[in-house]
């Protein structure tokens, strides 16, 4: 048998197999299309046969008179026309299964703010009350998001008795203009959905004159004449306990200039004072732990409950704060420092971004907080994931920092262990060497003898 002929046949058969496979694919697609068309035709014919059979069984079901159709289907047609003319009514708001709230809730969002978080802002609240001409008992504090009413008990234990935290729908109150008058807004909003964005939209439009023009307890009426009043376009002070990633969100940048003071050449007059914030951050990477109420189930609540824990801390969180600049001026500790609106915070908590408290602060609350007037000064462990300044130092910088840390530790250890003796003078007036090997006077130390 000729080997060349066999090879040619094998080559030809391979090409033919490819052509046949291609033809078969085309035929299969064609048969499938035809089958689909036939199935549609059969379905249409079956529907027509069913309709004709129903007309035969009940001849009175369809009758024509004067060119108009009068049948049993007319009520449905009329209802369909009405539905087109008038839109359907919105469904009623659903409440949770246990009926604890008059609005729809997510049990995973319900956690009470820890007591320590309120302790950390006592000094800011005291200064706001002082600027408003009030004390702790009369300062009106508003928390729009109701969880289990824990804020009232915790703030009352700290002396703040005028706390508004009712079981109401906050968004309905905004729509109906029923937000109660208040001097400061404090809240820890739900993390899911649109709540944080809606809250920021509210606080950036919550002007001081909206709540105090008809308020009997208006602090401006009780204030002395020589004291400056908050301007009409000043926002109501607010302290928001939010996760660390919120300032990196686009909706946050729409409402606030989070890093204005961190830019070079920035002046206070260059930016909108209603868009500037300051931040109070726990030191030593401390996380606020939140406690879900007893009625939150382990299945629908936080994932920490399903693991048998009683507290949860899903994200690092800290206080996002805003106080009107003029009110901040009234909060100064020293009259000479009124050139800067943030000097009270500097005097109390230390410079922005500093890891040490101010020397004037003797309160423990000051010593466990970082103060930052821009997001660039936040501690690295509290910066958001998408913050461009949240970068780990390069290997060389980390090596230098570790070396410096070990040297500082060794120096401190040597200083604590050194024991100096009284200097003894020889005939030439030079001091003898101390145990550390250094001279106590300007003369050269003697060489060590071996």
Descriptive report:
36% of the residues lie in helices and 8% in strands. By secondary structure, it is an alpha/beta fold. The protein folds into 2 domains: 1-53; 110-263 and 270-382. The strands form 2 sheets. The chain has a 7-stranded mixed sheet with strand order 4-3-5-6-8-7-9. A two-stranded antiparallel sheet has the order 1-2. A hairpin with a 2-residue loop joins strand 1 and strand 2. Residues 354-366, 408-419 have a biased composition (Low complexity). InterPro entries: DNA_methylase_N6_adenine_CS (IPR002052). Residues 1-13, 48-59, 95-105 have a biased composition (Basic and acidic residues). One of its GO terms (biological process) is methylation.
Low-confidence spans: 60-77, 79-98, 219-228, 260-270, 334-341, 358-362, 419-434, 436-441
The shape is: flat
How many strand segments? Answer: 9
Q: Which percent bin holds the helix content? A: 25-40%
Average pLDDT over all residues: 69
From the helix content, strand content and strand pairing, which structural class follows? alpha/beta
- The separation of the N and C termini measures 103 Å
GO biological process, one term: methylation
InterPro entries: DNA_methylase_N6_adenine_CS
GO molecular function: methyltransferase activity; nucleic acid binding
Summarize, please:
By secondary structure, the chain is of the alpha/beta class.
